[in-house]
């Protein structure tokens, strides 16, 4: 199958079938050696969709919403390639017209005319002529207006602008070192010898940052469990939970098990861990992690964490609440998130989080630790829930890095947008 067909079919699944871009790219990678151009085009179109559609709406007499979905995708891919990848030649137009013939033959003239008109008058057509500032920013950064308004409300305009500027930045990959098997320095030396560019994390003690992570999961060191790929803020959560051996630990929303498996490493297999998730299909991922790392004493369960489990009452020394969230902090890796969420969804998630936190509180022993984390930004899921927890009389906030809660931002910390706060039951 040619590249354009793979790109257009992949984007169709992301935009219209709610699939994740990473899953689509993994599927393509299993059939293709080099997918760098396909990756760039798929991410590029998702990250610029609102801007690309703005340009198309200047050129098309038919409204965007009325266009055939595949035809719209062909135009988006074409304009992205011409404008952002600087492929200003008519060969690319011919290729896309050929794809159009297969998808919707009657539209071939239309696609041809739009793409050629864009090449002829690119400078003018690519300008954004919008006066309203929010609408302008929304098109410029392809970020729905509700997110811009929500960030302004939660923080301020300066924060929002910095966030938008960093929205499409690709960051490094981070890994956590299994220091029961190898020291961070020794692993660093081995990976550097293999050609990786490695540096220390500024956020977590166990993490290393890798700027050229290609084929990292195929190395012998990964297979031998010397390290795991995990975002450094997520590693920091487990470091802050700091579980002790011979304790009872509950990870309420655990799949795919990245944090559970680090917790298992931190307690040397010497604690009772329950790793729970509501999604039955994701449980096998937790198991894969446990098996690769040869971890013991982890029981996997499958219940809705907002329901009360009477037998868990005051049973746990640690409850990790790494809860389902809107994910606005991880749009560099999952750019489609911006189109799949809305304000109503954020509010629903925030109330689900409160219900789960209520349960977690009940399951904690006196002296037990509750850690709440999200990979999102915005007040409803972060600050409000921190305040909610402070109102429980038997919870005492424990500072992390001298702060009552931590909120990392992509633009200041060069990492995921991520929130964490820690409490002890007194
Ligand atoms: C942020 S992810 C957890 C990531 C995981 N802690 C890790 O580090 O690998 C949130 C998880 O919550 C699960 N989830 C969503 N609603 C839930 C509920 N009501 N009860 C339990 N799990 C839930 C989702 O299936 C998802 O796997």
Automatic annotation (TrEMBL):
<feature type="binding site">
    <location>
        <position position="277"/>
    </location>
    <ligand>
        <name>S-adenosyl-L-methionine</name>
    </ligand>
</feature>
<feature type="active site" description="Nucleophile">
    <location>
        <position position="375"/>
    </location>
</feature>
<feature type="binding site">
    <location>
        <position position="322"/>
    </location>
    <ligand>
        <name>S-adenosyl-L-methionine</name>
    </ligand>
</feature>
<dbReference type="InterPro" id="IPR049560">
    <property type="entry name" value="MeTrfase_RsmB-F_NOP2_cat"/>
</dbReference>
<dbReference type="Pfam" id="PF22458">
    <property type="entry name" value="RsmF-B_ferredox"/>
</dbReference>
<dbReference type="Pfam" id="PF01029">
    <property type="entry name" value="NusB"/>
</dbReference>
<dbReference type="InterPro" id="IPR023267">
    <property type="entry name" value="RCMT"/>
</dbReference>
<protein>
    <submittedName>
        <fullName>16S rRNA (Cytosine(967)-C(5))-methyltransferase RsmB</fullName>
        <ecNumber>2.1.1.176</ecNumber>
    </submittedName>
</protein>
<dbReference type="GO" id="GO:0006355">
    <property type="term" value="P:regulation of DNA-templated transcription"/>
</dbReference>
<dbReference type="Pfam" id="PF01189">
    <property type="entry name" value="Methyltr_RsmB-F"/>
</dbReference>
<dbReference type="GO" id="GO:0003723">
    <property type="term" value="F:RNA binding"/>
</dbReference>
<comment type="similarity">
    <text>Belongs to the class I-like SAM-binding methyltransferase superfamily. RsmB/NOP family.</text>
</comment>
<dbReference type="GO" id="GO:0008173">
    <property type="term" value="F:RNA methyltransferase activity"/>
</dbReference>
<feature type="domain" description="SAM-dependent MTase RsmB/NOP-type">
    <location>
        <begin position="163"/>
        <end position="426"/>
    </location>
</feature>
<dbReference type="InterPro" id="IPR006027">
    <property type="entry name" value="NusB_RsmB_TIM44"/>
</dbReference>
<dbReference type="InterPro" id="IPR035926">
    <property type="entry name" value="NusB-like_sf"/>
</dbReference>
<dbReference type="GO" id="GO:0001510">
    <property type="term" value="P:RNA methylation"/>
</dbReference>
<keyword id="KW-0489">Methyltransferase</keyword>
<dbReference type="InterPro" id="IPR054728">
    <property type="entry name" value="RsmB-like_ferredoxin"/>
</dbReference>
<keyword id="KW-0808">Transferase</keyword>
<dbReference type="InterPro" id="IPR001678">
    <property type="entry name" value="MeTrfase_RsmB-F_NOP2_dom"/>
</dbReference>
<feature type="binding site">
    <location>
        <position position="304"/>
    </location>
    <ligand>
        <name>S-adenosyl-L-methionine</name>
    </ligand>
</feature>
<dbReference type="InterPro" id="IPR029063">
    <property type="entry name" value="SAM-dependent_MTases_sf"/>
</dbReference>
<keyword id="KW-0949">S-adenosyl-L-methionine</keyword>
<keyword id="KW-0694">RNA-binding</keyword>
